[in-house]
Amino acid sequence: MTFNGTPASYEGKDQFISLQGDTVNVSRGPAAQMITIKHLGTNGGGWFGANSAHPLENPNYVTNMVEIISQFIIPVAMIIAFGYFIRRKKLAWIIFGVMMIGVFMLMIPTISSELGGNPNIAKIGISQTTGAMEGKEVRFGPLATAYWSTLTTVTSTGSVNGMHDSTMPLTGAWQLLAMMINGFFGGCGVGILNYFIYLIIAVFISGLMVGRTPEFLGHKVEAREVKIAAFVTLISPFLIMAGTALAAFVFTTYGSANWAVKPSSWLNNPGYHGFSEMLYEMTSANANNGSGFEGLGDNNIFWNVSTGFVLILGRFLPIIGPVAVAGLLAKKKFIPESEGTLRTDTVTFGIMTLAVILVLNALSYFPALALGPLAEYFSMPK
How many angstroms separate the first and last alpha carbons of the chain? Predict the structure, then answer.
């Protein structure tokens, strides 16, 4: 990072003359050190306000690659480490495969959406040879921005190298869905934590389908564990939907309230995209992500307090559930594998788990996505 131009000193602001001839004051400090550490820890707060879209925080393609790898390497390593820790490497590779397929299912349509350009801009005769450039850095372009936006939302990093609020409607839908699922790698250890809940539900459903006793790692999965897993899967949808509904209610009913920041001034885009901005804010808080659709005026008491509650509940309550399930399973008698055991380290079971993840999240979040990014997409000229 330092060799490519990111500040790594403890000196104060410096000045330079911009291409427009303006004198600009630029912060310095130990930016390279912090940016590397924050990405390794999947924390997205930037040294500069524009985060990794800032030319000193992310100067070129080399630093862009370093930052992407940094935010992804530990979440991936945690999956492999899990396999070594429980001495079931094949299971770890199955989990890795399911998660990576999930990432590609989000990334490919995101890249396609951005490279396709904006039909509203095409309508007025402007060429978009590189794709939709609004909110993108010229040195990266839509491809690298779309790639980054997927990885920063499937993990809990939240750093950005372009403005998510300016991405195409379908891209926004995929970014939201990545944080809603919150089980494809996730933050450092968070992905396997949330995936464990999906896995318990998949074990239970698979056992019912094939007429075998649901077991995981040699321990029976019974009603109590499944109830806890089901409760955990409902926490995130409840927090996201309730928070968004409360925000929409305040905006529409008390828009002219005599607050320091009137609710009516929250949104620059009060239509479908405005709903997406509020939905994204709550989803990002629940996923401990931190990125945002920054057309939303969220630096006020309502958003700071409401997202604070969503943040703490969405982070700590889902930790209790998997730990409780693991503790209940550990107390049960170990059952050696036999012909009747439902194996969880097979490709077939991996596909089943992926199906459970997709179905649960589609049922939970499709109505909200339909009101926001999907409605915006279908309202655009084709």
Answer: 42
* Integer Cα distance of 197 and 207 in angstroms: 16
Q: How wide is the angle at C-alpha 23 spanned by C-alphas 18 and 26, nearest 5°? A: 85
Q: What is the pLDDT along the chain (382 residues), one digit of tens a residue?
A: 999 999 998 888 888 888 888 998 888 899 999 999 999 998 888 888 889 999 999 999 999 999 999 999 999 999 999 999 989 999 999 999 999 999 999 999 999 999 999 998 988 888 899 999 999 999 999 999 999 999 999 998 999 999 999 999 999 999 999 999 999 998 887 888 899 999 999 999 988 887 777 888 888 888 899 999 999 999 999 999 999 999 999 999 998 888 888 999 999 888 899 999 999 999 999 999 989 998 999 999 999 999 999 999 998 988 999 999 999 999 998 888 777 778 888 999 999 999 999 999 999 999 999 999 999 999 987 7
SS3 labels along 288-344:
CCCCCCCCECCCCHHHHHHHHHHHHHHHHHHHHHHHHHHHHHHHCCCCCCCCCCCCC
For the chain, which residues make up each domain, given as ranges? Answer: 71-382
Phi and psi at residue 138, to the nearest 5°: -60, -35
